[in-house]
From TrEMBL:
Lineage top rank: taxon: Eukaryota
Family listed: Belongs to the GCF family.
Short name of any one Pfam family annotated for the protein: GCFC
Acidic residues composition-biased segments: 34-45
Keyword terms of this UniProt record: Nucleus
Coiled-coil region(s): none
Highest classification ranks of the organism: Eukaryota, Metazoa, Chordata, Craniata, Vertebrata
PANTHER family, alphabetized: GC-RICH SEQUENCE DNA-BINDING FACTOR (PTHR12214), INTRON LARGE COMPLEX COMPONENT GCFC2 (PTHR12214:SF4)
Region described as Disordered: spans on this chain: 18-51
Keyword Hydrolase: no
Record's subcellular location: Nucleus
Family matches, as InterPro entries: GCFC2-like, GCFC_dom
Name under which the protein is recorded: GCFC2 factor
Major localisation: nucleus
Amino acid sequence: FLGEDNSEFIPKYRTCRRQAREQSGQADHHEGMSSDDELTPIEGDEFQKSKDNVLEDSRKVFEDVHADFCDIRKILLKFQEWKEKFPDSYCDAYISFCLPKLLNPLIRVQLISWNPLEQNLAELEEMPWFRAIEEFSDAENISES
């Protein structure tokens, strides 16, 4: 197909796809929309099962971790206490550079079920991890000023 004029191929392809949809009784296709992204019911069921398995496995990731170390709010509270009690060592440890790497796995687990194409940005901002980081950032700005 590279370098060839395939202008005749496209209408034939569309005609074949349209005939296949008509024979199978798929009436939910909108003309002009790509049918390549459409899943068959079997593929949709398999995808949903796979997605459910991933979500179930993600709930088990931190089940054997002490509660103080798998809750973002509690972790950030410990860092805030450290900053208040020992500001020099906190500053020397470059914690602001370490926190994103430290919190990354915890946030990723919480984002597994989030789909930016189905949910809006406001829902992201209402997630517990987002609120905890926002509060920590506000507390840091207050203490610095």
